[in-house]
Design goal:
Blueprint (H helix, E strand, L loop, with lengths): L10 E9 L13 E3 L4 H7 L1 H5 L6 H9 L3 H12 L2 H7 L3 H5 L11 H11 L16 E5 L3 H12 L3 E5 L8 H5 L7 H15 L2 E3 L10 H7 L2 E4 L5 E2 L12 E3 H10 L8 E5 L3 H12 L4 E6 L10 H9 L3 E4 L1 E7 L8 E12 L5 E5 L5 E4 L2 E4 L3 E2 L33 E3 L2 H4 L4 H20 L1 E13 L9 H14 L3 E3 L1 H5 L9 H4 L1 H8 L32 H9 L6 E5 L9 H5 L5 E5 L3 E4 L6 H6 L4 E8 L8 H5 L5 E17 L14
Parallel strand pairs: 2-23, 3-4, 3-6, 4-5, 6-18, 8-16, 9-10, 9-16, 10-11
Antiparallel strand pairs: 1-24, 7-17, 12-13, 13-14, 13-15, 19-20, 19-25, 21-25, 22-24
Amino acid sequence: MDETNQNGRRIRLLSMVRSEFPAPHAARTIEPLAVSSGDAEWYLENISCQYACPAMTDVARYIAHIASEDYDSAYEINLEDNVFPGLLGRVCARPCEAACRRGRVDEPIAICYLKRVAADYRKRKGPPSRLPTTKKQRVAIVGAGPAGLACARDLRLQGYEVVVYEALPVAGGMFTAGIPAWRLPRDICKEEIDDYFAAIGVEIRLNTKIGTDIPLTKLVDEYDAVYLGAGTQKPQTVGMKNENLEGVYPGLTFMERVNLGPLPRVGRRVAVIGGGFTAMDCSRSSLRMGAEKVWVLYRRSRNEMLIYDEEAREAEHEGIEFQFLVQPLEVLSNDGKTVSGLRCIRNRLGEPDASGRRRPIPIEGSEFDIELDMVIAATGQNADGSWIPPELGVKLTRDGRPIVDPETWMTSCPGLFAGGDYTAGARNLISAIADGKKAAASIDQYLRGERDEISYKARFDFVPHLENVSDYWYGVEQQIRDDQDRKVKIVTPQDAAIRVSNVPASVWSSEAMRRRLMVGDDYVLIDRQPMPGLDLDRRWDLNHEVELGFERGPAYDEAKRCLQCQLNIFLDGPNCILCNGCVDVCPTKVLSMVSLDRISSVDGAEDHPILEQTKKWPAGAAMLMDEDLCIRCGLCIYRCPTNCITMQHYEPEFKKVATIPLESIKMREPVGPKS
């Protein structure tokens, strides 16, 4: 449920308040408003960082534990949610930070860096205990990348025997083959991939290419289920002339050589084509390998690049030259064999294309040449379905990706599942991890021969903030619980698998209101903490990590900046006197009082029972909250003369309500991924 208004804001109805006379402070000139009474999804979406994360990482919870200096609990939350805390704390694509509500106030929380803090400072280190095998079925997974390993971990937690097959000599996929050691130290990779998975009992067979060393049909015959998480290993072509000349490398091939050897020969003058993370890794690695001059050529503007600003700034700091709105046309050669230059054309931006970014349009007559001796085309890669034998009957898209059921992740071959970048195309690490976790839940229900129906609702815990609390505060709490009992939603096991945390909430979060109102808390005044980096003169090595991580002090300050968006304002309508004090004191102006006739619908219904009831009142007003900019300061609570405003701590609550045999469920027709 997501009722939005003309300005795109989400307005929640705190309460309809009855009065005998017209409320003097009620606004009457605003446009009619569509409001929501709130449900489980609404309150989860309020935690915008978590909602933006494909794996639904419980961000606010683990940051609160960091503020409490409980690094072990923070690490445990990340281990549950995204499997690789120390790795993703360095290289996650950070969709959470773009959504962070604090970013609408000043700058977003350094969510990714704080994930690393939990990994760096936890006390409990070393491999975990081996997990027991409680199920008789065996599962094979093709690909030891983020999706395959996430799927393997969750299936192992559920008691299945899991064997992972990997074509490369190392496990980890993009973690170890695509990302350089100066961004991702190999001792962290060993700890969170090799040591961890061996300890819990996942067998990883390296140097084993399915389709060459072992046919896929053999896996389908020998295992009870098979998951294809093979990633995207086929480089895309740029479409320029002479791409096959000596000295032209696909970006992923170049990085595999950098990481796994043998090291490629790097030219003096290098052009890297592309504007993503692989392009940054290729360009900065080239400098470390002896290149004298490196350009990054991107066909759109800086605003359309898919990397975060810090990444581009670090590349420029190291001497990389960016040329935007530039598109390569032809690789030049003086001898017909090796690279001598690159002919390019300048672009202008047109209307947005299918990706939502403005389409580059070549400018006629703007061609120019760059003298160089190496070209790295980091423009993406595709899935390869050529090793899937036709006799399995797997339906493929035109570009060779397996087609899967959008809910179960199963292909048209029973028991054969697929996911991650292999079905969706190249994206980011956290999206692949989320896919693997969802697939594990689906494989489990397939092997059990039944599917669980799971109810999902919002549960709220009272957040104390004053020394003496009136009895009716607890009545508000019970009223909220009763209201939520009427808004139960059924979700799939795949959704439930990524929306629950077994780690209790931190005292930092539960004491937020007391601390902010009575003790004092400067959380709104603290600037985002900068990531310390290695001095420039010490960076010219492929193995020296550039980002050094937060020390404990800056980590605490950064964690303290978090608004703790799982806290929610509620209002006890019968005790509200419509004084407008909360509206006046709100620093971000998210509270409002409007006349009853300005509410056009509740939960999308123009004849909602709440609206029908208010038509019988002599007068009154609606107390509303704009969820967009609330900073959870609690000033409205402190200002209220009747103590009718409270803060409640949101928790997702899941409960199995039924188990249904799979044969009674009609599977949806598999559909292809978006191109």
